[in-house]
Design brief:
This protein is 63% helix and 9% strand. With 423 residues, the protein is of the alpha+beta class. It has two domains: 124 residues, no CATH class; 215 residues, Histidine kinase-like ATPase, C-terminal domain (Heat Shock Protein 90, 2-Layer Sandwich), CATH 3.30.565.10. The chain has a five-stranded mixed sheet with strand order 1-2-3-5-4. Helix 6 packs across helix 10, helix 9 runs parallel beside helix 10 and helix 10 runs antiparallel to helix 12.
């Protein structure tokens, strides 16, 4: 198909060729009038020169965008490409007649080469360049008055070089435009992919937040209310204590829900005091007549401020581990131990419950493995941390979560594919 006639990158070159054409046309006409005044062909040369000038002036008009069509056009508008082709034909014909009448007009072929190469497809443009070159050679030989090898060979060589350079430049420009389009498309696809990955990661994070806060709180309330129902008639005071504890858990859950809506930060951390204070508040809340939770900080020293993501992740791990202890372990005591090393912080959660076999649980179907330990493992892996679970039937369980103090950025883990077996 025809190439674009007025691309912004080549507009300046088109203007140069336009000016050059009129200079060559004016020079050829002046030469003819000076050397052949008063000849019978002079009126024809003048008329054809004027016609060629007018036709060339119409080129920029026809190369622009098609005018806006009326609201209800009677016929479809002619495409600009067809209008340019319809314009180029008369220009070439008029020039050929002028060359036959006055060979000095042959030099006007140079801008016409460029116009044909820009307007026509490559093969058609080469045919036009060949025809124009033949006319130029014939005109130069007529002006020389005899055979001249230089005039026979030089114009075709110049035309071939000009055509080759132009076509090579056009192809390079086309490849560059295709590359730019491909880069833009790739950037859009990459941005869409990053948005999708971000959405999936956010969904995973939200599921872990809900499990580690609201779901565990609701599970605790259910267990406390069931215990209160069992002893309501035999021991009303103990039943009321269970109900009051369930109300306290519900109040904490409400605070968690509000914080969850606000910025998803754990409510215990939002109260101030850092991770150590949040772990002590969690232990106090989880302790009751059946389970005692203790907190131990290595060397009794105050834990320095840790990154918010690290504090939040360790607190969620502690919440999830204690929820597992309460629901599955049948333990009477549990301990939260926080140790700050040179390059990492370690949280250990131990209990004296009946334990379990991690290898046996890891073979369970995905739907029966729960969400607790997979969520802990996924949360820690996002921070470059690790989760280790040691347990055996009848020997209790020890869970260790280690997070580097300068965690690398890693891709979100898939909670459905944990390395450690859930409880």
């Amino acid at each position: 198909m025809p190439k674009p006639y007025d691309h912004p990158d080549t507009r300046w070159l088109g203007a140069v060729m336009h000016v050059a054409f009129f200079l060559l046309l004016g020079g050829a006409l002046a030469r003819f009038l000076l050397r052949h005044p008063g000849e019978p062909r002079t009126p024809w040369v003048l008329a054809l020169s004027l016609a060629l000038a007018v036709l060339h002036l119409l080129g920029p008009v026809l190369s622009g965008p098609a005018p806006a069509a009326p609201a209800a056009p009677a016929a479809p508008a002619v495409p600009p490409a067809r209008r340019r082709l319809a314009w180029l034909g008369p220009v070439v014909v008029v020039w050929m007649v002028l060359v036959v009448l006055a060979p000095s007009f042959a030099w006007c072929a140079v801008p016409l080469f460029y116009t044909g190469l820009r307007t026509l497809p490559a093969r058609a443009a080469l045919v036009l360049v060949t025809v124009l070159t033949v006319f130029v050679v014939a005109a130069q030989l007529r002006l020389a008055g005899g055979f001249d090898p230089n005039l026979l060979l030089a114009p075709p060589a110049v035309a071939a070089i000009a055509a080759a350079v132009f076509l090579h430049t056009e192809r390079q420009a086309a490849r560059q435009r295709a590359l730019i389009d491909d880069l833009i498309r790739t950037r859009r696809e990459l941005a869409a992919s990053e948005r999708r990955e971000g959405t999936l990661a956010e969904r995973q994070r939200l599921s872990m937040e809900i499990h580690d806060s609201l779901a565990q709180g609701l599970s605790s309330q259910r267990m406390l209310l069931q215990a209160a129902e069992r002893v309501w008639e035999s021991d009303p005071d103990k039943a009321r204590a269970h109900v009051r504890r369930a109300a306290s858990v519900a109040e904490h859950n409400l605070a968690e829900a509000r914080r969850f809506v606000h910025d998803l930060a754990p409510a215990d951390l939002a109260r101030g005091g850092g991770l150590e204070a949040a772990l002590r508040a969690l232990a106090a809340r989880e302790s009751d007549d059946h389970l005692t939770v203790r907190v131990h900080v290595e060397d009794g020293t105050r834990v320095p401020p840790l990154p918010g993501r690290v504090q939040s992740a360790l607190l969620r791990v502690a919440q999830g581990a204690l929820a597992n202890v309460r629901e599955h372990a049948g333990a009477s005591t549990a301990a939260l131990s926080l140790t700050l090393l040179d390059d990492e912080v370690v949280l250990d959660v131990t209990d004296d419950g009946h334990g379990f076999d991690p290898a046996e649980r890891s073979d369970a179907p995905a739907g029966m493995r729960g969400h607790g330990l997979p969520a802990m493992h996924a949360r820690l892996r996002q921070l470059g941390g690790t989760l280790t679970v040691e347990s055996a039937p009848g020997e209790g369980t020890a869970l260790s979560a280690a997070v580097p103090l300068d965690p690398p950025r890693t891709e979100p883990a898939d909670p459905a594919d944990p390395q450690e077996a859930p409880r």
